[in-house]
């Protein structure tokens, strides 16, 4: 399995992801403050505003950390070499793949069980979880097809 992207390109892409996380967090935080004039936030529950606020701050912090960490890697060739070796280590790749697989499987079955339970309690929650489950399956199938072509 040969990845076509060089490590410096991956690092720059991760910087972009960090900036995107920061921006999404900023949008969430501003939404929690009710600063969008076209969006009605007066009917929002207090916990929803707190959730948006906390999510926004968390995403902004994660974005800054991701951006700065990768910026420092780009500026220090020795650290970049060490990070590249660690990332391309076969044991780390195996552990990452196994973790992603098992975590995804557990989440999938958790949503499936929640969907079954919600069907007995609330039709709106049931249909929402059902659509989430269908969307997750579509994403899984699509990424499988893309990865099969790329790798």
Please give a quick description of this structure.
The protein has 151 residues and is an all-alpha fold. It contains five helices and no strands.
Keywords:
85% helix; mainly alpha; 5 helices; flat; 0% strand
By secondary-structure content and strand pairing, the structural class works out as mainly alpha
Order of helices and strands: HHHHH
Estimate the strand proportion: under 5%
Poorly predicted runs of 5 or more residues: none
Distance between the termini: 6 Å
Structure description:
With 151 residues, this protein is an all-alpha fold. It has five helices and no strands. Helix 1 (7-33) runs antiparallel to helix 2 (46-75), helix 2 packs across helix 3 (77-87) and helix 4 runs antiparallel to helix 5 (123-150). It is flat and about 55 Å long. The chain starts with 6 loop residues before the first helix and ends with a helix.
Give the SSE layout.
Elements: H1 7-33, H2 46-75, H3 77-87, H4 90-121, H5 123-150
Helix pairs in contact: 1-2, 2-3, 4-5
